[in-house]
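User: Let's play a game. I give you a shape written as tokens, and you guess the letters that built it. Ready? Here's round one.
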């Protein structure tokens, strides 16, 4: 495979609308493959397993989703550092931007191995499940935890592919891993009747095989010129200043992620006070919002790669063009997605549930979901800009102030407007995320312009 580009500026052809759209569709498909895996897990156990095994899969998947989402900084920080090294044309810095977080991912993965029992105990104590479901969930967790180091290391490799702008390779890795996982589900949980533990084991094996495949691809893409060593020197790898910068960025992103989790958790918890139908309706509407995020994330990922490369090259004109081109296409997509929810939301909800009380509440609040998608595009795009530029402190601070506004707004609006007030506060929350980051954009532009 060819090595990384070493030009000091972004190729103008990569900023055409056609090129940006060509970058986005593999990301959308890659993102969509994850829920398909969840559906396959459910289908296999639902067909071949027991009610308890199905409940165990639901609990176990929730636990690992929460744990792994907390380590999403491995993907995001890597993307920014890789894209900037690519823009600067510094191949050694590029390889270091991959090797350092890989070491961290391996360390954290082993830490998850060592903490498996406390994670299992605390998680199940917080969740309300029957003893039989808990027994199955324990088997699932103990099988799947063996894939943790591979899963975290793969986050780094996927972040590398995004930073390099290799989106089709990203799609290949995601489809391969999830496809293998589905096949192993049918083998272990279906043909061999291993139940929940079979699903956990299949996922762990798929994660390790996926790491080997993704690692082979990334190491091939980053292959240095003949006669040049691939691995950097120990002194360069463990450079204190560079490690400090990496850890700071990752801690900032972790804090930002935890605050986003808190915001969505608050929304769900507040909705529960209005009854089961409202709680379920809010969940269904969030599925429509999540579906829209597949598309908006595609443009945000493209923004990360293009902005990071422009920042690394110190090219303000390309920086501006990258933001303008990806944002105009993201806005068009947001308008289309908003129209789909506004005019076809009820039939879409009917596909997700046949419970009339839930459908009625969802229909009553459908316009809020549409508005949320329409205004969320700014937050998605600015996240992409600041990840690419590794301005993680700004992201952390924006997440804090946005969450604070959301809590205050829900406190003020929910007593008088009930669930409508909660949705209005939720909309204000995503608007605040865009506004607080947007306020930092002029300063970021000045810093890019000042680069030598």
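Assistant: Ready! My guess for every position:
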């Amino acid at each position: 495979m060819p090595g990384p580009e070493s030009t000091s500026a972004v190729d103008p052809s990569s900023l055409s609308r056609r090129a940006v759209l060509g970058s986005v569709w593999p990301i959308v498909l890659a993102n969509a493959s994850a829920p398909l895996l969840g559906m396959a897990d459910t289908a296999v156990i639902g067909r071949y397993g027991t009610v308890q095994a199905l409940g165990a899969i639901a609990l176990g998947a929730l636990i690992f989703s929460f744990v792994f989402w907390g380590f999403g900084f491995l993907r995001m920080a890597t993307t920014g550092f890789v894209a900037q090294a690519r823009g600067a044309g510094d191949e050694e810095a590029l390889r270091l931007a991959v090797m350092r977080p890989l070491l961290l991912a391996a360390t954290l993965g082993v830490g998850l191995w060592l903490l498996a029992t406390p994670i299992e105990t605390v998680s199940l104590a917080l969740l309300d499940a029957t003893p039989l479901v808990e027994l199955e969930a324990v088997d699932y967790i103990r099988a799947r935890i063996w894939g943790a180091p591979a899963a975290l290391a793969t986050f780094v490799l996927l972040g590398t592919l995004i930073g390099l702008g290799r989106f089709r390779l990203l799609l290949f890795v995601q489809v391969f891993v999830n496809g293998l996982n589905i096949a192993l589900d049918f083998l272990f949980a279906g043909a061999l009747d291993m139940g929940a533990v079979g699903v956990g084991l299949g996922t762990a094996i798929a994660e390790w095989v996926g790491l080997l495949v993704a690692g082979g691809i990334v190491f091939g893409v980053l292959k240095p010129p003949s006669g040049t060593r691939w691995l950097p020197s120990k002194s360069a790898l463990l450079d204190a200043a560079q490690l400090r910068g990496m850890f700071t960025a990752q801690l900032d992103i972790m804090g930002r992620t935890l605050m986003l989790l808190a915001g969505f958790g608050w929304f769900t918890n507040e909705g529960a006070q209005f009854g089961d139908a409202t709680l379920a309706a809010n969940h269904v509407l969030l599925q429509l919002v999540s579906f829209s995020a597949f598309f908006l994330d595609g443009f945000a990922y493209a923004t990360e790669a293009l902005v990071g490369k422009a920042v690394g090259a110190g090219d303000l004109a390309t920086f501006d063009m990258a933001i303008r081109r990806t944002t105009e296409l993201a806005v068009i997509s947001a308008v289309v997605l908003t129209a789909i929810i506004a005019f076809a939301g009820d039939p879409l909800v009917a596909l997700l549930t046949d419970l009339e009380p839930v459908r009625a509440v969802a229909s009553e609040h459908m316009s809020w979901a549409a508005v949320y998608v329409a205004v969320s595009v700014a937050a998605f795009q600015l996240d992409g800009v600041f990840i690419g530029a590794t301005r993680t402190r700004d992201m952390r601070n924006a997440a804090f102030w946005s969450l604070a506004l959301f809590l205050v707004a829900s406190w003020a609006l929910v007593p008088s407007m009930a669930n409508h007030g909660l949705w209005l506060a939720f909309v204000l929350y995503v608007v605040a995320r865009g506004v607080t980051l947007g306020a930092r954009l002029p300063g970021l532009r000045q810093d890019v312009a000042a680069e030598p």
